[in-house]
Amino acid sequence: MQIKHNPGQFSNRRKIVAGIILATSLLLLVQLFMLQIADPSYKTSALSNYLRYVTDYPARGLIYDRNGELLVYNEAHYDLMVIPGQVSELDTLEFCELLGIEMATFESRLLQARQYSRFRPSVFERQISKTTFAAFQEKLFRYPGFFVQPRTLRKYTYPIATHTFGYVGEAGPNVISNDPYYRPGDYIGVSGVERAYEEQLRGQKGVRIRMVDVHNRDAGPFQEGRFDTLAVAGKDLYTTMDAELQVYGERLLQNKRGSIVAIEPSTGEILSLVTSPAFDPGLLVGRQRTRNYRMLQNDSLNPLFNRALMAQYPPGSVFKIINTLIALQEGVISPQTSYGCGGIYHTTGISIRCRSHPSPVNAITGIQYSCNTFSSIIFQNTINQSKFENIQESLQQWRDYVTSFGLGNPFGSDLSHELPGLVVTPDYYDRLYGPRGWRSQTILSLGIGQGELGVTPVQLANMTAAVANRGYYITPHLVKAIDTPDNKNNQFGLANNIEIDREHFETMAEAMRRVMAEGTGSFSAIPDIETAGKTGTVQNPHGENHSVFVAFAPVDDPQIAISVVVENAGYGSVWAAPIASLMIEKYLTREVNRAWFEQRILDARFLTAQPEDAQ
Amino acid sequence: MTPQFNILKNIDKTVLFLFLVMVIIGWFNIFASEYTEAHRHIFDLGTSYGKQLVWILGAFILAAAVLTIDIRFFTSFAWVIYVSLLVVLIGVLFFGVEINATRAWFRVGGFAFQPSEIAKYGTILALASLISRARVKSPDVSSRTKAFAVILLPAMLVLLQKDVGTTLVFSSFILVLFREGYIGGLVLFFGVVAVALFVLTLIFNEFIIIGALAAITLLVGFLMRKKSRVMPQLIGLFLLLSGFVYSVDYTFDNVLEPHHKARIEVLIYGGADLQGAGYNLHQSKIAIGSGGFAGKGFLQGTQTQFNFIPEQSTDFIFCTVGEEWGFIGSLVIIGLYTSLMIRLLYLAEKQRSVFSRVFGYATISILFFHFAINIGMTIGLVPVIGIPLPLISYGGSSLWGMTLMLFTFLKLDAHRYEMI
Lengths: 615, 420
Description:
heterodimer, A: alpha+beta, Penicillin-binding protein 2a (Domain 2), Beta-lactamase, 20 helices, disordered C terminus, B: mainly alpha, 2 domains, 18 helices
C-alpha cells in the first residue's frame, strides 16, 4: 500500500530554507577567503617559519622599609631557552664549549626539554653570565631553536630580615597545575612577604609574538604587535619594618640563639622581626639557591628556622601579666589585696620557690618582684572561684581570657609560616587525669607561665602591645602600604578587644613601670625614657634556662612594644632585658649612648650547637 | 511491504557516504590537534583520538541498530522517548557532574556523557509526531502553542544546566516551524532583523540606531504616501523596533552572564583582552589564517601543535582543518556540510509522511545551526558559543546524537513508500 506524496501548502518554503543554507555557506566561505587568502596579515610570511611567543617578565615589586628606604630590588640576568621542535643542525661542540658544558649534558637537557614540549620553550641553561650572554648573542643565528630570555633576580640592600622577606623560587609542578598563570621556569614567592604578597609583587606577564625565520633570526613582530600584551610591573611593598632597628637587632643577637620582635602598639605594625641565627638572604637567589638551601638545611644551628614566628616557649614569668589582669578583672583580688611571701609557696603536694624580696606583696609589687607565691595564690583563687560548677568551666573561662591576648592561635595576617602556640584546654587535662582527677594545684605551673603553654615571640610582643594599648591589640603585620606609600594596607586595621577593664591595665602599666624603675629590670632602665617591662626566665629541661623579657615605652605614650628571647642565656633580667632596652633606646632616640652596656651584649656568646629545644 | 525488505538497498547512499567521509576526516583532525611525539599510539585510550575511535565504533553499532529497528517504533514511542529524556535532563541537574562550568554530564569511567545532546533527538521525535497528527490545514493557535511548548520545555531544562550553547541549538527549530507553516515568513524576517539590530546596538549608541530607524520610517512613509493605511503600521513598527533596541542595552547589561557578555564584546570590539575572552578567537583566527591557500600539511600546523588553542579537539576543531589544510580544506568541509544538508532537504521533501518530513527538516536545522555557529565562531563571525562541529569534533555525545538523527531519518526515508 502506498500513500500519495503530500508536501503541504507551504512546500514552496523549501526554497527559502535551501537559500538560507546556501547563503550561510557562502558567507562562511567569503570570510574564510578573507582570512586565508586575501588578508596577508594572518599569515606568517614565507620567510618566517615560526611564531615565537616571547614572554616579557615584569620586574618584581620592590620592597621598602617604613621610612622609604629600599631594601629589596632586582638585577637583570639571562636564561638560555630552547624550543626543541625548532632545533636543527648545529655545531654542538662549539655550542658546548661556549656554554662550558659536556656533550652528554647537552643531549640530556635537550631530551628533557623535548619531553616537556616540542613546541614550548624550556630553560636550557639558567642565569648565564654576561660574558656568555654577549658571546651567545653573536652566534645565536647558528643555533636554531635557542634564544635568550631576560629575567630578573632579587638583590638586597642589607643582609638582613631574611625570614621576613622570604625568598623567590621556581614554581613547582603543583603550583603550575593549579594556577594557569604559572609556567615552568616562572618565579614565585616561596616564603615570607614574597609569598604573602605574591600576587601584588609578581605583576602581569606580557607576551610578544615574534616571527622567526629559518635561520633563527627575528623577523619582526607579528602583525606589528597587534596581539602583543605589555608586561605590567609588580607593585612595590612598603613594609612596616624599620631597617635601622632591624640591622641593630640582628647585630645585638649575633652569636646568640633567639629573637626580637618589636611592634608599634597603636597600629600593630611590626618594626623589627629578628631571628638568630639567620643568614644572608642573597644566599637563596640564583643558580646557587638549591645548593645553599641544602647547606642551610644541614646547618646544626638551624638558621632556616624562623624563631620569631615559630619557636614556641612556655612564657615563664612574663605570663604573670595576664594572670594578674585576669584576677583583677574577675575580682579575685583588688589592687590593694596583698599576700605574704616567705620564699616558698606550699599547697597540697606541691611547693614553688620564690626569690627573696620585700613581703607582703600586692598586684603591683607582685609584678615588680615577680613573686611566685603571689602568682600561685591568685591563680588558684581564679580557678577555684565558687561561681563555676566545675574546674573545666573555670579553666575554659581562663583560657578564653588568655587567647583574647592573641595567644594559642596564629594571627593569620601576612606573617608566613607562623605557628599557633599552645594554650591548654580542659579536655587535655580530662584525658590526662580523668574529668575528676585534677584540681587547681594540679595545674599550678600555669600560674607562673610554665607547664602546658607555648607562646611564640611575636605573640609575646603582641600581648605586650595590648597592655601598652590598655586593652586591645591590632593584628601584627608586615606591610604598611602597597604600590604607593599612600595606598594603605587596611586589611589588618581592626582592634581586637580584651574583656578586661582599662583601670586594670593602668595598674599593670604602673607595675611594669616599677619593674624597670625599682624591680627586676632596673639594671636595664633607660635614662630619660620611662619604660614598662617584665622579666621572665623560662625553665629549660634540656639545658640553661631561656632569658625572656617584654617591654613597652614610653609608658604614657607607647611607641614600641617589644619581646626578646635569648635561648640558654639564663635570667631574663641579665640578657633579654638589656637587649630590649637597647632596642627601645635605638628606636626612640635613633642612637645608643650606653657604650659599655651595648658592648657587653655584643660580646656575649650563647651559641652552642645543641638539639633544638624550643619547639 | 515485501517480507524481505533490504535496508541496504533502500538506504540513501549519498548521505551514508558523506557521513563516513566526515567522521573519518574528523578523526584525522582530532589526531592532528592532539598529536605529540611522545604519544604515538593510535589506540591509546588516554588520548582523545584513542577515545574517539571507541566513540566512532559505538556510532556504527548505533547506526546499525537504528536501521534494524521496526520503523513504527519511532512513531509509536516518540512521546515515551521525549518524556524519558525530560526526566533524564532533570536528573542530570541533581546527579550530573560539572565540566567547564556546565552541569550537563553523566560520567562513566573515563568517559563523560552529555544527555542534552540526545535530548535534541527526543524533541525532534515529539515535534514530528505533534505536527504529523495536526488535522488542520493551516496551524491554529492551539497547535502552535503545543509545538512551541514541546521545544521550549527541554530547552529550558538545558538552560538550567547553564549550557547556553545547546539551549540556543533549540532555536534552530524555527526552520522546521517555518517550513510547516507554524510561523510566517515575517517572523523569520523579523528574527533576522532583531539579531542584526542587537549586534548594531552593541556597536553603536542605541539613540543613533533609533534615529536611523526614524529616518528609514520617514523615507518609507514618504515613498508610500499614496497608501493612507500604511502610516499607522509604520509608526507602530518603528515604536516596536525602537523599544527593542532600547531594551537590548538593558538585556546586555543585566541579563547575560559576564562570560557571555565578554564573548560578544570581543567579537564586536575586536577584543583588546588577549588574556581573557579574546584569546580563543585571536588564536583561532591566526591558526586558520596562517593556513593560507593549501595549508601547512597534516601534523605540520604550528599553532595547532603549540596547543595555543584551548578545546581544540572539541569546539575549535575547525582551526586544525584551516591551518593544516588551508582554504582548500575549508572549502571541502563546507562543501561536505552543504551537500549533506541539501541532500537531506531533497530527501525530506520527497517524504510522503509529514512525520518523516518534519524529522528530516529538524535534522537539517540542528546540523545547520551547529555548522553555521561553530565555523562562524572560529573565524570571528559569531560570538564564541561552545557547541561542537557535528561528526568532526571530538566527543561521543555529539557524534552519537548526530548519528542517531541521521540514521533515523535514513531509516524513515528507506521506508518512505510505506504507511507509517
